[in-house]
Design brief:
This protein is mainly α and about 240 residues long. The chain has a domain of about 100 residues. About 45% of the residues lie in helices and about 0% in strands.
């Protein structure tokens, strides 16, 4: 599972207030976890067609005026607690799938972790639990924590416990935020990718995208270019909503 990559994106979405001042919803976390445990990068279903990136320097396009970023809702303490428990259920599903006889640990919740220390605290919990972490340089030159080693039921149980105890406060997106996210993808990211020879499938309607959230089934995708040397200039020219 490329879990550390997912966590890095999650923290970026929680901490940045630029083009999208919003955070991942619990449902999107579910999609990410199952996709990550299955094989590859966490995120939306890949729907990109064939890719033929240009050999020259990556092209960018003008950023459309999307207006101000919509304000998030402030869920009640009761709803926040429901979302936290729902996230634990989501995190348990891949463990139960891989280890049908596993007993779900009881986890004592002591409070939410600060956004600025989330990754360090989570990784410290992994290390203390016996999970081995490494580092790697990603396609845009950042040094990031590599996957936790997951090769036994004990390791998967340890990961579940760490994710349940080192927890960010749930902040689900409202419809206005989802629509703003769609506008960024459809009006900037997809056309910017197209300017670099990356052809995406047709986007759903804005209304359908919002109605199907958190599993909209579409996002602009770099396809086979992602993770190659050609990706870095395209990512710099066409930043995603959380970059």
């Amino acid at each position: 599972m490329r879990e550390s990559t997912y966590e890095l994106a999650r923290v970026r979405s929680l901490s940045r207030s630029g083009r999208i001042a919003a955070v991942l919803v619990v449902g999107l976390s579910a999609t990410a976890l199952f996709a990550g445990c299955a094989s590859t990068e966490a995120g939306p279903t890949r729907t990109t067609g064939e890719s033929s990136p240009r050999a020259e320097a990556a092209q960018t396009i003008d950023m459309p005026d999307l207006g101000p970023s919509p304000a998030p809702d402030q869920p009640s303490d009761e709803i926040t607690e429901q979302l936290r428990l729902a996230q634990q259920d989501i995190d348990w599903r891949p463990v139960a799938h891989m280890h049908p006889g596993a007993v779900r640990p009881d986890v004592t919740f002591d409070g939410y972790t600060g956004k600025d220390i989330y990754l360090d605290t989570l990784h410290a919990c992994y290390m203390a639990s016996g999970l081995r972490l490494g580092t790697k340089v990603n396609e845009i030159g950042e040094t990031v924590v590599n996957d936790a080693e997951m090769d036994s039921e004990a390791h998967h149980l340890a990961q579940f416990v760490c994710r349940a105890t080192v927890t960010l406060r749930p902040e689900p997106w409202n419809a206005a935020q989802v629509g703003y996210h769609y506008d960024y993808l459809a009006e900037f990211l997809a056309p910017c990718y197209a300017a670099n020879g990356l052809r995406s499938t047709k986007a759903p309607s804005r209304a359908d995208y919002i109605a199907n959230w958190p599993n909209p089934g579409w996002a602009p995708d770099m396809g086979a270019v992602f993770g190659t040397p050609a990706a870095a200039p395209i990512i710099a020219a066409c930043p995603g909503p959380f970059d």
